[in-house]
Amino acid sequence: MKIALDCDDVLVNTHESLYQFYKTQHPSDRINPNAPSLTWPAFAGDEAKTIAWFELWCHSIFYDTSMPLAGATDGVRKLQELGHTLYVVSKTSPHLLSRRRAHLTKLFGNAFTDIICLGAGSKRDAVQKIGAEVLVDDDTRNIMECYDVTTCIAMQNQVNSDIFAKTAMPSGVKIACTWQDVLQIIRHKSHQR
Question: Terminus of the chain with fewer CB atoms < 10 Å: N or C?
Answer without folding.
Answer: C
